Amino acid sequence: MTDVFEEVEEQLRSDQYIALARRYLPWGIGIVVAGVLIAAAVWGYDDYQTRQAGKAAEAYAEALESVTKGDKAGAYAQFDTVVKVGSKGYKALALMQQGGLRLDEHKTDEAIKLFDAAAEIAPTPVIGDAARLKSAFALMDTAPYADLEKRLKPLTEIKRPYRATALEALAIAKLAAGKVDEAKGDFGVINLLPDAPAAMRERANAAISLIDSGTSKSLKEIAKAAMALPEPTALPSGAAMPGLSNANPQAGAAQ
Fold it and tell me: What domains, with CATH codes, occur in the chain?
């Protein structure tokens, strides 16, 4: 009799297991299907991002080629394509290029808006500060000193990627505003910066010598000379964008 009861009890357990399986199996299948769908969605998004990045890189390269051929209108339209399909980095770089093209056409107001837009969406300070510097440079001859200081002073803080360049631009703005002693102090700081290029230090020393000699008539000329900033050959370490060789603020807007 014991064997009979055990057999019946085992059968009951089996029936219970089957009932439970039938009850919860659809949920289990749903969870698995959901997991597959999520994985597929992630893969699809990554694939989409990769393809979009490829399109942006290709459009950017074609735009640069159009610039070298003198087709600036075509280049502007191609950069606009990058703005629409590219990542934040490519969008910012394309907006900067468009700003440079507008500067070539003496459309300073439009250029400033494009540079500021690039700074706003830039994913890193390397790109964002580049756009901010371009915007400040475009305003050097027309904006009041207070406006230039507002744009440039934050860029002179320690660890900002273009600190030396921003300090030089701020010193130039101070010279133009008659703040000679403050400008001299900034030029002195440039001489102490380990990452300041040799050419920049030479300009700083020349400016300090002229200030000390009282040759005020030459200050404007020194300021203009200092604006002719040399082009570094690469971004700071680790800052390169895929498919791009240079995205620094001192390079021409359309290379």
Answer: 14-227 (1.25.40.10)
